[in-house]
Amino acid sequence: MSENDYCLIDATRPPKADGPPYAECVLCREPTEYPESYKGITLCPACEWQEAQRTACSG
C-alpha cells in the first residue's frame, strides 16, 4: 500500500487554453485558464486553489 492510497481525490483537469475565449469559473464567474469549448466544471486559479485546500486529505 503506497502512502497516497487513502487519498481518493480526482485530480483530472481540463486542458489549458492557448488563448481566449476562456471558460468562466463555475464559482465566481471569472475567466479561467481553460478553453470555453471545454464541457465540464472549470475553476479559476483562485477557486481551484481554495477547492484543493478544502478537499485536501488531512491526517
In brief, what are we looking at here?
The chain is built from one helix and two strands; from the N terminus they run E-E-H. With 59 residues, the protein is α+β, with helices and mostly antiparallel strands.
**How far apart lie the N and C ends?**
16 Å
Class from helix and strand fractions: alpha+beta
Principal-axis shape equals elongated
Overall pLDDT metric = 80
Query: How many individual helices?
Result: 1
Unreliable residue stretches: none
- Determine the fraction of residues in helical runs and give it as a percent range: 10-25%
Order of strands across the main sheet: 1-2
Describe what you observe in this structure.
With 59 residues, the chain is α+β, with helices and mostly antiparallel strands. The chain has one helix at residues 45-55; strands at residues 22-24, 31-35. Strands 1-2 form a two-stranded antiparallel ribbon. The longest helix is centred in the last third of the chain and has 11 residues, at 45-55.
Fold topology:
Elements: E1 22-24, E2 31-35, H1 45-55
Antiparallel strand pairs: 1-2
Features:
59 residues, alpha+beta, two-stranded antiparallel ribbon, 1 helix, 2 strands, 19% helix
